[in-house]
What does this fold into?
Amino acid sequence: MKERRVERVIEKMKEQGYGQLLVSDPATIFYLTGRWIHPGERLLVLVITPENKNTLVINKLFPIEEDLGVEKVFIDDTDDAVKKVLDYVNTDEKIGVDKNWPAHFLLRLLELVPDAKLGNGSEVTDAVRAIKDEEEKQLLRDAQADNEIAVDRLKKLLPQELTEAEMADKLAEIYKELGNSGFSFDPIVGYGANAADPHHETDDSKVKPGDSVILDIGGIKNSYASDLTRTFFYKEVSDKGREVYEIVKEANQRAIDLVKPGVKFSDIDAAARDYITEKGYGEYFTHRLGHFIGIECHEAGDVSGANDNVAEVGNVFSIEPGIYIPGEVGVRIEDLVIVTEDGCENLNHYPKDLEIIG
It folds into this structure.
């Protein structure tokens, strides 16, 4: 077990009055044990107690011989899996259950313990995971450094006039060459009008002169995610495209400049959004400013007008304003930042000046 991480979880669960946590999320189990386990439809639960007497209940289909610093209990497919978990649970105390625990397991728990006092245990583990330790910060730096190499290589393929889907295929090859284990999310390659769809799904479109080109990409390196967006123009740029680009670039920087401990996420969002609105494009900025990132590309926590929580040292999140004018042009610029004692560290060094390719 990652002892300091487990200790932080226990501190937080005590604060919230839990007698135990039932952790089923594979990413959180990896975070706490250093071991990935993907159970499919089978039960997987790490029981954490305030006394730090913890138990991993796992199917025999997944033999784990190494010492994970936790008692391992192996179950059969024919076992009543939830009943086995309850052997290690004090049902008189509040039970924290993962937000993504399959409903059939939760319903079985309620059959066995009708009066169970339940809560969303992910609020505990998500809060702990939101504060990255030094090991995690370095892993995220390394992952994002690879991502900058990837976006540069991908950008240089534009003169070949590959389709969006072909560009995504090339990106998979680039990540493999860089030692990444795959995508952290399905890459977004958007040409021209497609770039004006914030979550466009790559298709067989080909790039045309004057198109804005959004490359929103991320890989996985040593189990940590990267995420980066840059927008380029192919062969030429219109006056409107140039104007929109410069506004988004300034909005990105204004938000980054505001990041420091104690600042509300809603205020960080407003720093970018209010500027875009002031310039007359507010209706075309259609999503939150950013999301937290770590083992998963989108982790709990966001940078939005609805989040009045404050930034803490060790938070890592994206700053990604955009303007999307249907049928005309789309621009998004995304960086990742780590909150530091007196501001933030931008994990991105890739240029943000407007660039015309080809």
